[in-house]
Amino acid sequence: MSNKSSVFRIHSMASIMHHEAYQMRPLFFPQYSFCFLTGGEALCDIDGKRILLGPGQLLLVPENKEMFVHHFKDCTGVCGIFSLDFLKDASYPVLRSSLPIVQSFWFDDAVFMGALVNRMVTAYDDKDKAFLRSAMDLILGQLRPGGHMAVVPERFLQMVFDPNQAPLSVSEYADKLNVTANYLNKTVKAHTHRTAIDWIEIARLNLAKKLLKDPSIPIVDVAIRSGLEDQSYFSRFFKKKTGLTPSQFRAEK
Question: pTM for the whole thing?
Answer without folding.
Answer: 0.81
